[in-house]
């Protein structure tokens, strides 16, 4: 692991790190006094994880682009070899306790939801944190503190929205995998009707179950998934026009509009900043 940049504040410490993962790697993530939040900036290599103190030791669920390991919980993760760049954050428990109810519990559904946080607000805050890590400026510590507070609040809201009851009402993992596999097709975003037919359930059951499982609407999840894939393509040598076509947009301008609306920057601005960072490192 190589730490390329680091910022710290009373609420949180954050790092921009590069991993060179050996073949069939496995590891354990645990922190007694902080929640670990991580966002992958490059594709994960078939990463899966298990909360072995709560689940069967054979149950390994898929890890998404953003995941959280609650303080005092142990996550066993494994994946294939490859290189990966991530933003990692340690949100200190005591300073952010005020934003979590005193009776908050990490239930079965909440633990499963930690492995793939598809909340667009959390994603946006981590992207902004990544920009500050790459190019720190005036009052970076203060800005980091503000982002940390917003992350704590958004995460609290996200998990409070996931009911305390057992998995009743949520979608089973096999249905969530079907949806994720369909979303891997960049050419055309699926309709609710198509996803409902794929999962063999009604649109109403699908939308309710998906929100209960992932803590956000299917629409928000689809938009965020497409933008994250667009970011990865922008890290390649493809031109913006080719990426727009591959993503299924009618024109480069419509792609640029959607990308800017979601990230606050145009595809070219995102590519220039990423290229500048790679050149310096």
Number of domains: 2
User: For the record, what CATH class of the largest domain applies?
Assistant: Mainly Beta
The name of the CATH topology of the largest domain is Jelly Rolls
Shape field:
globular
Mean pLDDT: 84
The helix content is: 40-55%
**Which sheet architecture does the biggest sheet show?**
5 strands, antiparallel
Lateral arrangement of strands in the main beta sheet: 1-2-9-4-7
Architecture of the largest domain, CATH level 2?
Sandwich
Q: Count of DSSP E strands?
A: 9
The low-pLDDT segments are none
In percent terms, what proportion of residues is strand?
Answer: 15-25%
How are helices and strands ordered from N to C? EEEEEEEEEHHHHHHHHHHH
Number of helical segments? 11
Q: How would you classify the helix and strand content by structural class?
A: alpha+beta
CATH superfamily of the largest domain: Jelly Rolls
Q: Report, as a whole number of angstroms, the end-to-end distance.
A: 14 Å
Computed Rg: 19 Å
If you had to describe this structure to a student in words, what would you say it looks like?
There is one protein chain. It is globular and about 50 Å long. By secondary structure, the protein is of the alpha+beta class. The protein folds into 2 domains: 2-160, Jelly Rolls (Sandwich); 173-280, Arc Repressor Mutant, subunit A (Orthogonal Bundle). Helix content is 45%, strand content 19%. The mean pLDDT is 84. The chain has 11 helices and 9 strands. The strands form 2 sheets. It has a 5-stranded antiparallel β-sheet with strand order 1-2-9-4-7. A 4-stranded antiparallel β-sheet has the order 3-8-5-6, with no helix packed on it.
């Amino acid at each position: 692991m190589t730490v390329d940049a680091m910022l710290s504040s009373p609420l949180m410490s954050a790092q921009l790190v590069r991993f060179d993962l050996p073949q069939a790697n496995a590891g354990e993530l645990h922190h007694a006094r902080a929640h670990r939040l991580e966002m992958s900036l490059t594709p994960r290599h078939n990463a899966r994880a298990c909360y072995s103190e709560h689940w069967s030791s054979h149950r390994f669920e898929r890890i998404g682009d953003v995941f959280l390991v609650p303080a005092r919980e142990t996550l066993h993760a494994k994946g294939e070899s490859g290189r990966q760049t991530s933003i990692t954050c340690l949100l200190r428990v005591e300073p952010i306790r005020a934003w979590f109810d005193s009776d908050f519990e990490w239930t079965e559904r909440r633990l499963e939801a930690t492995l793939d946080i598809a909340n667009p607000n959390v994603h946006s805050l981590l992207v902004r944190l990544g920009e500050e890590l790459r190019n720190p400026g005036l009052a970076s510590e203060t800005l980091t503190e503000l982002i940390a507070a917003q992350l704590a609040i958004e995460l609290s809201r996200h998990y409070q929205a996931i009911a305390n009851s057992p998995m009743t009402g949520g979608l089973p993992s096999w249905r969530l995998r079907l949806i994720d596999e369909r979303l891997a097709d960049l050419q055309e975003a699926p309709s609710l009707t198509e996803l409902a037919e794929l999962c063999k359930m009604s649109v109403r059951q699908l939308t309710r179950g998906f929100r209960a499982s992932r803590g956000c609407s299917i629409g928000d999840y689809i938009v965020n998934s497409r933008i994250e894939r667009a970011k990865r393509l922008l890290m390649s040598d493809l031109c913006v026009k080719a990426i727009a076509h591959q993503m299924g947009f009618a024109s480069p301008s419509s792609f640029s509009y959607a990308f800017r609306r979601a990230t606050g920057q145009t595809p070219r601005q995102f590519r220039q900043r990423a290229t500048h960072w790679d050149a310096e490192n």
